[in-house]
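User: Quick sanity check before I run a bigger batch. Here is a single chain. Can you write out its predicted 3D structure?
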Amino acid sequence: MDKQFFDFVYLYADAVKGSGDSPDYKLDYEKIIAFASNQGVLSVIMPQLKKYQHIAKNTSFGNLYNEYLVAVVNNEVKTQKIIDIVKKIIRSGVKCCMLKGSSLAVLYKNPQTRISGDTDILIDEKDEIKVLSILENEGFTINHRTQASNHSVCVHEQLGCIELHVKLYYDFMEDIWFDNIVGIEEQYVENDGIYILGYTDGYLYVLLHAIKHFISGGLSVRHFSDILLYAEKYADKIDFDRTNKIIKRLKYEQFEDFVYFVGDKYFGIGNIKPFRGFPKEAEEEIFNDMLEGGIFGKNEKERARFFEIYNECRFNVFKNENFSKYMTSWRRDNAKKVISFSKCNIIKRYPYASKGLFHYFFALFSHM
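Assistant: Done. Predicted structure follows.
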């Protein structure tokens, strides 16, 4: 394990939290930049790197820092426009909640540095057609979700991607991974005209989102900081009795313990809830896995077989059924939904089909 990665984590923790634990010796500039890029947090550490004279004098860093400043300004403009669109959706009478993104960025020491590539929004399924129509009118290209998916992907040339969720998780994940015990149990919380999940629901979502990445593709230090900063900010509002029961039932205690182990060692956040320690070997093994995967899961192909095995193991923990039969039935049921030619299903997948008979038949033809 490259020692500079541990230095990078200390540096990152100081950047997001102000822990004061940035290394006080000369860092390998190129390695730190490579680690930050791999973990998707280059923008977050830029102000911190500028404090190192040997780095600040580097011409390459000067150019990179200028790019960072432009990216931050562009992201702030984009974020404000997205927020305006979300408020427009809310004014239309839709119950709408922002997931992750800017709702987590405000927890960072420099919120503008947590730049997200997309925006996640949760709505009720009954409002899906209405919201997709609003986004389409705002210039988004709609990639409609399949019946097996929980979100549509809406892409804008300037504003990036909005993932419009009608559920927090795929049905498959809710059933096999989470045993159908993780849901929304609280009222949304309003903040300056925007709504986020209730504090306990939000904590579970951020934690399970990180677990999903860890299992299926790649984990990043940003997942740790999101969880830790959220838990620290809302510690007095989170129902840890509820979260403990759920995490224990799902057998994810060791992952959560490791998050707080990292929080205590690197971020100076260790007094939120009890956790067990980990030997150096375990820490290095997980950090190595993070480097191999990166924030967007570079090694998903290599993990494909593991993913299959994991799903079967989870199924056997929670279900008293045959996994092969379950999967065959699941694929068949979802295939039926996808190829359904009912008017309701056509309009759900192609909102413009509701505009008139011509639009409906054009959508029907596209569906075929």
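The chain has 17 helices and seven strands.

User: Great, the batch can go ahead then.
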